[in-house]
Amino acid sequence: MKHLTIDGLGNIRDSEHRVLTLRGINLDGANKMPKEPEMTTFSPLTEEYWDGDNVSFVGRPFSLDEAPEHLERIRSWGYNVIRYVYTWEAIEHKGPGIYDDDFIDYTIQVLKLLQKYDFYVFLDPHQDLWGRHSGGSGAPMWTYYACGFDPKGFIDTEAALVQNEWPGGPEKFPKMFWAANYAKLVCGTIFTMFFAGREFTPKATINGVNIQDFLQTHMLNSMLHFYRRLLNETDLFEDCILGVETMNEPNSGWVGHVDITKVPEEQQPKIGHIPTVLQSMILGMGKKATVDNYTFGSFGPSKAGTHEVDPRGTRAWISPEQGRRMDKHYGFERCAEWQLGECIFAQHGVWDPETNEALKPGYFCKCPESGKDVDEPYFVNNFFVRYWKTFYSAMRDLNKTMFLFCDPPVMAIPPDLKNSEHMDDRVIYCPHFYDGLTLMLKKWNRYWNIDCLGVLRGKYASPILGIKIGEQNVRNCIRDQIDTMRREGLERMGNIPCFMTETGMPFDMDDRAAYYKTGDYTSQIKALDAISYGLEGAGIHHTYWTYTSINTHKQGDSWNGEDFSFWSNDKFDSDLNNSRQYRAKGAVDINEKSRAAEAYIRPFPVAVFGDVQEYGFDLSKGVFTLKIEGEKTVDDPQPATEVYVPDYHYPEEDFYVNVTSGNYEFNKLTRTLTWYHEPGEQTLEISPIDWPFGSTLKENTCGCNIM
């Protein structure tokens, strides 16, 4: 576990100079939400929901007594790395500079258990949509007040669509509506403030600094407090924790928005009510607006008329009276220019609240200081990089050797940091990938898909040219998109590792038919196999999203209707036709509630003495192939290549092994095949004695079920 390095080609190597493959999962989806009081996005509105100060995440993700069962299960899948999820809110919910050391105490105990189970770990300060009260997770509630907002005004103004506040109850919240919040008032404003407040909200000064610096400083200080305790009180950074991530899925807010009176063609996702930026500002001031309404179908979003949204005077901005109370409570001192109760952008002359007219429609697409055009590449290479530099310096001052995981905006071309002084040989590039159509429709279509990344990169003259027809072409399309991300990292950031820290597929496909009707998980298996095929084909490290210890069939991961967990508390209904929920003979009981495990429990090269040329697992045949360029050595004993061989697919020793040179041995306890091979081009192949899965995976290949 110790002394990992990155070589000149971007490989992660161990102390024996072997190339490692890090393969694991995010732990835990439940860490986004408080434990006390117990709250998920399905929880009905109570006074406790509005009390952001008095929450506790102690007990997340699970009790210490329950931990061994979960960790043994994940280890039994062969996974060797955990992306450990935590939130800023969990540490600093009480107020600025007030840290919850009880939470850190508990987290240290959980991390020590991960250390005991021999996992590599890296720490993810997770956020989605800024925080819980704007429909996501991450930041403490007091940050909304710091930015001038009143969370109680969000639902009426549609400044953010929040499942807990959904009219008719949380159970009625439409699937994937949450993701549209990024373009609405709260997220558009706060992410603009966080990354570019000095430029676009210079009047927003609090406690003597711009809101940008206020937010960034407090978030980074909370991380540093947490990490400093880990470094000073434990040996976790020596024997378990690889490093720390920047922040999950940073967003540009409205920075780069060309015209506040129009919805950008490229804005995604478009689902439900989609206001323009100007309409978001108008609604935030309590005035009605008629906004476009979108549905999402097989070919993407389509406009389905308009809808009048009328807040009836309710504002998303905090009233002066309440604002003064909150400022006193949290110790905020605002500059006199910042008028509470008024839209911060109206105060900067972007629009006129009296006439509702745009005064500076292109406000966000020109840098006020330099006058340069601002678009996504400009945001990434200037505003995100500015944050990266602050993060990098703070973390390197704390520790010189931990890996820093750089997570740029989703699907964006990574920043040009190749020759930056804020780069070193212990930085890792961390893109995310999800298949958009499957994610939005919650259906797997193996017959056609679209090269979303290629369309975003302008690869095609028309998006329709990015459509890929046929199952193998769909799989190759996913692989090629992931590989493009890897190559972009090498080109823009240098020879550093590419680590896909989030990817996965929803389990609640086909209206949850697998749970309640058919017991047939073929769609989920095929979808996850396609993702895994892509990851193997691109040859990158990865942590799937996700393991959620509170998952149920009814509420999924208990967060915005998502259902990604590989494991569920609910058993498979024995009354259903479970013949397609396969079980390999000899599979251990610990996987009883694991879903579609055929696809994500896979053989892989844990450590290779040489360079990996390619590897992959063919689920339809049960065949694993590894091709390497073996390294020369005079060491005795010679370092060996190690391959994980899952009991789930190859119980006991029910498999054949073919190698081009050398010899091997197999440890049934650790499920490790150790291969001593010659230098040069070498191949290892593992094949099953009996394979129960292939025939069903090939069923229904005739016909076409275009959704």
From TrEMBL:
The keyword Coiled coil does not apply. The keyword Hydrolase applies. This is Glycoside hydrolase family 5 C-terminal domain-containing protein. It comes from the Eukaryota. Residues 602-686 form the Glycoside hydrolase family 5 C-terminal domain. Keywords: Glycosidase, Hydrolase. GO terms for biological process: ergosteryl 3-beta-D-glucoside catabolic process; polysaccharide catabolic process.
